[in-house]
């Protein structure tokens, strides 16, 4: 069951059983969003040492509220990329493909981009149990 | 040990290695420039309506490219031109940045971001000064051009 969720510009929740954080950015990202996300992830990492996956679901990338938010984003990635095994980016935006190719050079975690119609495949790749009804809904 | 007259103040110690750590600052400058370019280009691709934020993204991209060009120019050209160019670029960029932050209330930036940006500009500025100083130290006959 999802646990430890937060909501602002960045809607985030963590599924403790599968060790996957789901992120849904809905408004330009702020410094506070990354602070809250760091707290959420770090509290999990204190117990488990490694996060199995990160699932980012976004219709389009909303950008950052300020340059400070962008720097905070980079710091979050720098601090956590060794502690996360897989990152699935589910989006139809061109940013998804760009993020996948950039991440291959700079990030230790395995990053893969999925078009939004392949949400179920992204969840399967992250080993999240997919409910049959949800699977049918995605199709 | 040299002895100086009691009537005259001691001269300042001569900087024996003015271009020291130029590689370190060049690296930092290149990273800062790429961060500016990345923020600017991604923002340009994602922002839909807000004119001021678009302007800011454009300015950041241009300044990132400009500072990279100046660092490359400083490596090739001895003299004070690259230093003046980076000073003018940094000043214009900082004024434009602060103006946009003040004018556009949508950008909740604050003093922290301005300090962060100013630190990036300082990195670029010092990198160019160090590169020019290093090249002058290795070719003292050109020093008169810099003074």
Q: How would you sum up this structure, described in words?
A:
The complex is a heterodimer of chains A (139) and B (147). Chain A is α/β, with parallel strands linked by helices and 139 residues long. Chain A has helices at 31-48, 67-80, 94-106, 119-125, 132-138; strands at 2-6, 10-15, 20-25, 51-57, 84-90, 110-114. Chain A has a six-stranded mixed beta sheet with strand order 1-2-3-4-5-6, with helices on both faces. In chain A, strand 5, helix 3 and strand 6 form a beta-alpha-beta unit. In chain A, helix 1 (31-48) packs parallel to helix 2. Chain A is globular and about 35 Å long. The two termini of chain A are 23 Å apart. With 147 residues, chain B is mainly α. Chain B has helices at residues 22-46, 51-76, 81-103, 110-138, 143-146. The mean pLDDT of chain B is 80. The chains are: A alpha/beta (139), B mainly alpha (147). The A-B interface holds A 30, 60-68, 70-71, 74, 94-95 and B 35, 38-39, 42-43, 45-47, 60, 107-110, 112-113, 116-117.
Secondary structure blueprint with pairings:
The complex is a heterodimer of chains A (139) and B (147).
Chain A: E1 2-6, E2 10-15, E3 20-25, H1 31-48, E4 51-57, H2 67-80, E5 84-90, H3 94-106, E6 110-114, H4 119-125, H5 132-138
Parallel strand pairs in A: 3-4, 4-5, 5-6
Antiparallel strand pairs in A: 1-2, 2-3
Helix pairs in contact in A: 1-2
Chain B: H1 22-46, H2 51-76, H3 81-103, H4 110-138, H5 143-146
Helix pairs in contact in B: 1-2, 1-4, 2-3, 2-4, 3-4
Short description:
The complex is a heterodimer of chains A (139) and B (147). Chain A is of the alpha/beta class.
Strand order of the largest sheet of chain A: 1-2-3-4-5-6
Give a short account of the largest sheet of chain A: 6 strands, mixed
Termini separation of chain B comes to: 29 Å
Most residues in contact: chain pair: A-B, 15 and 17 residues
What form of chain A results from the Cα inertia axes?
Answer: globular
% residues in beta strands of chain A = 25-35%
Helical residues, percent of chain B: over 70%
Unreliable residue stretches of chain B: none
| Strand tally of chain B | 0
Query: What's the CATH topology name of chain A?
Result: Transcription Regulator spoIIAA
Gyration radius over CA of chain B:
19 Å
The secondary-structure element order of chain B is HHHHH
Task: Give start-end ranges of low-pLDDT stretches of chain A.
Answer: none
Number of structural domains of chain A: 1
What's the number of helices of chain B? 5
């Amino acid at each position: 069951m999802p646990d430890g969720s937060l909501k602002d510009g960045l809607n985030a929740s963590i599924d403790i059983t599968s060790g996957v954080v789901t992120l849904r950015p809905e408004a330009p990202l702020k410094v506070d969003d990354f602070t809250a996300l760091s707290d959420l992830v770090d509290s999990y990492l204190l117990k488990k040492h490694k996060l199995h996956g990160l699932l980012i679901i976004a219709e389009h990338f909303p950008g950052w509220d300020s340059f400070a938010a962008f720097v905070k984003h980079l710091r979050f990635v720098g601090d956590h990329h060794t502690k996360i095994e897989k990152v699935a980016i589910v989006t139809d935006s061109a940013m998804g493909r760009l993020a996948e190719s950039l991440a291959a050079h700079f990030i230790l975690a395995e990053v893969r981009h999925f078009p939004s119609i392949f949400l179920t495949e992204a969840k399967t790749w992250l080993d999240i149990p997919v409910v049959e009804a949800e699977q049918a809904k995605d199709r | 040990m040299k002895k100086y007259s009691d009537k005259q103040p001691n001269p300042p110690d001569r900087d024996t290695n003015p271009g020291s750590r130029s590689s370190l600052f060049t690296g930092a400058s290149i990273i800062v420039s790429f961060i500016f370019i990345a923020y600017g280009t991604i923002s340009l691709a994602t922002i839909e309506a807000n004119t001021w934020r678009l302007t800011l993204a454009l300015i950041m991209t241009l300044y990132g490219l400009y500072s990279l060009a100046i660092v490359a120019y400083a490596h090739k050209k001895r003299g004070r031109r690259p230093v003046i160019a980076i000073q003018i670029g940094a000043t214009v960029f900082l004024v434009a940045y602060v103006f946009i932050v003040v004018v556009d209330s949508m950008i909740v930036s604050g003093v922290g971001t301005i300090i962060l940006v100013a630190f990036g500009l300082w990195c670029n500025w010092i990198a160019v000064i160090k590169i020019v100083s290093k090249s002058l130290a290795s070719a003292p006959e050109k020093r008169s051009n810099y003074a």
